[in-house]
Structure to design on (230 residues):
């Protein structure tokens, strides 16, 4: 993951989106070929794993990369479909993201904060801001130092979550989660906001995946108020 700074000029209507309509759009999407292409962009198919294994013989950084991306399988694809049907839609906050994702909209990893329930938007915003500060070395308390040690490993790994401490998020169940953001989840010129809608299964071992930007744009357009007529 990169130390590139996030951009905050996103769509101001995103938090007012009709999540019911967004889920219906996603339910239609998972029945199409586009969903399978999206899934394979996130996860490592057999051919990719073979290439990574060969490259890993000569380049240390490539070793285990296929495993870190998560092995694609029919069972995992079915789990994705189940998440679209029942997992919470969470407006996650980005802590840090790869430069390619920020400015070019390419498939890349990110670290996000996820939570659900009353007050979760404010909790995620506060936690993401603090995590970003301590990531860049501004650690002010022993508690922050301990938390910094849990996010210092920037190596992406599918499904990796770190439970955030009570002193930071209260009784809300919140996590710092690794997220592979497929290119379809960002605009061509990169992310426009520090808020990224995702499906997030509950629990420490739940999966998290970003919702395609095209579906979000359609839902936002439906949710936005009509223009004023002069």
């Amino acid at each position: 993951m990169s130390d590139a700074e996030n951009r905050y000029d996103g769509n101001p209507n995103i938090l007012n989106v009709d999540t019911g309509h967004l889920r219906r759009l996603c339910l239609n999407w998972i029945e199409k070929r586009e969903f399978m292409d999206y899934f394979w962009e996130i996860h490592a198919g057999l051919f990719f794993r073979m290439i990574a294994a060969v490259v890993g013989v000569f380049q240390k950084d490539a070793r285990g990369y296929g495993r870190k991306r998560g092995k694609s399988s029919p069972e995992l694809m079915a789990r994705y479909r189940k998440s679209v049907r029942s997992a919470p839609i969470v407006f996650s906050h980005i802590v840090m993201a790869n430069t390619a994702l920020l400015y070019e909209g390419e498939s890349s990893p990110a670290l996000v904060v996820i939570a659900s329930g009353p007050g979760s938007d404010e909790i995620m915003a506060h936690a993401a801001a603090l995590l970003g500060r301590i990531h860049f070395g501004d650690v002010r308390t022993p508690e922050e130092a301990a938390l910094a040690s849990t996010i210092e490993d920037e190596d992406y790994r599918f499904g990796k979550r770190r439970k955030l401490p009570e002193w930071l998020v209260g009784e809300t169940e919140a996590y710092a989660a690794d997220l592979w953001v497929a290119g379809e989840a960002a605009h061509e010129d990169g992310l426009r906001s520090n808020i990224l809608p995702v499906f997030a299964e509950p629990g420490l071992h739940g999966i998290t995946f970003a919702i395609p930007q095209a579906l979000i744009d359609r839902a936002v357009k439906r949710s936005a108020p009509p223009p004023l007529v002069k």
